[in-house]
Amino acid sequence: MTQSLHIAVIAAHPRRRSFTLAMATAFADACRADGAVVEVRDLYRLGFDPRMRAREMPDHPGYAPRADVVRERQAIGDANVFALFYPLWFNAPPAMLKGYVDRVFGMGFGYSPIQRGGNQPLLVGRKLVSFTSSGAPQDWVERSGAWAAMHKQFDEHLSLMTGLEIADRHNFGAIGPGLAPVRFKECCAEVDRRARRLMASHTPIA
């Protein structure tokens, strides 16, 4: 018996009918078609609370994750791949996604409790993929340094803390109202291609 790839698709956009959610759906569908087990977490529809309370901070006496964090960790805990879908707002993830990462990927899931002045990553051997979108064209995002800064500040730091391998990242630039249907189809095709490439790189365990 082979072990299927488990993928957690984590999407953050306030509009249900959004480019972000459409790309997340296209990715999930492509992965399922190739045999993956996919768990979709649509954070706004879940009503996830991104705000961290003082008692949730790792140094709080009697620290314990809140019930909603426990549920999320159970929902995505088997994932071999975490796929993030979100728009870039001021060249950063929406507060909803940032709060999800802060709370769910924190101590006890993404990294171990601090011992002797340090902690250990707990997600080594798993992968991270990210699909973002921006109103600005991609060439401007790159020329301005925004793309490199975003990668360093968010993706690489998340990888460093948790041990996740950055397997893929892609930004769709010039996304906004009036997006041409042909461009939308091209974006869906790009997501499908990258999803199938990810699936092809997975070696099933007998």
Automatic annotation (TrEMBL):
Q: What is this protein called?
A: FMN-dependent NADH-azoreductase
* GO MF annotations in UniProt: NAD(P)H dehydrogenase (quinone) activity
Record key words, sorted: Oxidoreductase
Naturally occurring in which organism (per UniProt): Brevundimonas mediterranea
Q: Which domain of life is it from?
A: Bacteria
| Family statement | Belongs to the NAD(P)H dehydrogenase (quinone) family.
Q: Which SUPFAM superfamilies match?
A: Flavoproteins
Q: Which residues form the Flavodoxin-like fold domain?
A: 6-154
Oxidoreductase in keyword set? yes
- InterPro entries registered for this protein in UniProt: Flavodoxin_fold, Flavoprotein-like_sf, NAD(P)H_dehydrogenase_qn
Q: What taxonomic classification does the UniProt entry list for its organism? A: Bacteria, Pseudomonadati, Pseudomonadota, Alphaproteobacteria, Caulobacterales
- List, alphabetically, the GO terms of the cellular component aspect: cytosol
